[in-house]
Amino acid sequence: MAKLDLRGRKIKILATLGPASRSPEMIEKLLRAGADAFRVNMSHGDHATHAETIAAIRTIEKQVGRPVAVLCDLQGPKLRVGQFKEGKAVIRHSGHFTLDRDPTPGDEHRVCLPHPELFGVLHKGQRLLIDDGKLRLKVIEADMDHILCSAEVGGVISDRKGVNVPDAVVPVPALTDKDRRDLAFALEQHADWIALSFVQRPEDVAEARKLMRGHQRGAGTALMAKIEKPAAIDRLDEIIELADGIMVARGDLGVELNPEEVPPLQKHIVAATRRSGKPVVVATQMLESMIERPAPTRAEVSDVANAVYDGADAVMLSAETASGAWPVEAVTIMHRIAVQVENDPGYRERVHFTQVRPDATTADALAQASATIAQTVRVEGIIVFTGSGSTARRVARERPDVPIMVLTPSSQIARRLALLWGTHAVQTKDIGSFEEMIAKGKRMALRQGFGTAGSKLIALAGVPFGTPGSTNLLHVVTLSGNELKER
């Protein structure tokens, strides 16, 4: 089976697998079309099916010769109404409707809300959004047994529809019992990333981290916080500090906020995460029309392009690849959009609009210097030697003009970097000396297509080798073309 070549783009593509795409044949097609990582949605399917999917990814990964990240996305504490006598009811526009703790089936006047924690936090004037915002209720009065609302937007409500509470921090645990089971399963399957849904506060991230560290396989797995609750925006910097990456989950965020509020928030979240040097993923409805059609709308193309211009590390496809009719085409067009944008002469100015200042460390200074040298001297790429991935993150934060080849002895780190902007990770044996580093870097550069005879490259590493966080060496090398003959 042919190996995958360099992508020719810096931003990564995260594709969700599902009924339309989880077969080994489709996984390979999606990888060859441009996918860099795969999302396994724990909200759907069972553990046996997910285990088969992850095993298929690992098999194809070996065949294509490139590390592939697996992200397991936890469902999170989704709030829902109870059931109705007729399976549904009509809430009259401007009429009154009550949510209570009575478990009997509801009607056009009331329904059970099986979440007792909500009754103590809602107050007059706050909003309840039902069925992704299709119905909008405003609280008139609330106590520990009932919540009386007026219907600002009425309509049909049916069994188990979701409830969003945008105006209050709901005291629900960050992880439900199902999430805990799914988290343990994902760690046992060696998932590279865990996505935590409906994060409201940094304590939610800390709780998930504690559970992961308590698992024998959880210490090296990365944790991504999904920003989809307005409450998370108020403590965004703290959440970024505790997480390994951030996802702008625009679905629920767009339900709980006015539509016009989401685009500037997206840019704010991307910029804040970029300044931290951690990966940030833009997700939800990017090519939504391609669930049913073979081509996107112009507006969708612009949406993807804006995420690329913002310097996001990755863009995500959800139902487009999980259950849509055109999964390969969706990845293909997303790849083409990214390549076109990154080849725009104005791309550099736009992607560097976010001011990223290095910390006062040798490692950050060298990372910034490598990007500056790449601008000044014609180099084909930057070679990074890393055991933890931290040097790669520092260099990627600078958004250099050239691709970044990351050499690491850790397969886990190589896979995690599949969601980091501009990186091409290669797992290789550890190095023990400066001379070995340079020789191996040159060989790998030629093998991976990072240059030909006469090409210049920048090499970054830390001495002594194998010491975490010791990046203190920058070297410019020239390929002779004879390196592949050397052992």
Task: Report what the structure shows.
- It is built from 16 helices and 22 strands.
- The chain is α/β, with parallel strands linked by helices and 487 residues long.
- The protein folds into three domains: 12-76 and 173-346, TIM Barrel (Alpha-Beta Barrel), CATH 3.20.20.60; 79-164, M1 Pyruvate Kinase, Domain 3 (Beta Barrel); 362-485, Pyruvate kinase, C-terminal domain (Pyruvate Kinase, Chain: A, domain 1), CATH 3.40.1380.20.
- The strands form four sheets. It has an eight-stranded parallel beta barrel with strand order 1-2-3-13-14-15-16-17, surrounded by seven helices. Strands 4-12-8-9-10-6-7 form a seven-stranded mixed beta sheet, with helices on one face. Strands 20-19-18-21-22 form a five-stranded mixed beta sheet, sandwiched between helices.
- Helix 1 runs parallel beside helix 11 (327-342) and helix 4 (202-213) runs parallel beside helix 6.
- The radius of gyration is 24 Å and the shape is elongated.
- The relative contact order is 0.11.
- The mean pLDDT is 93.
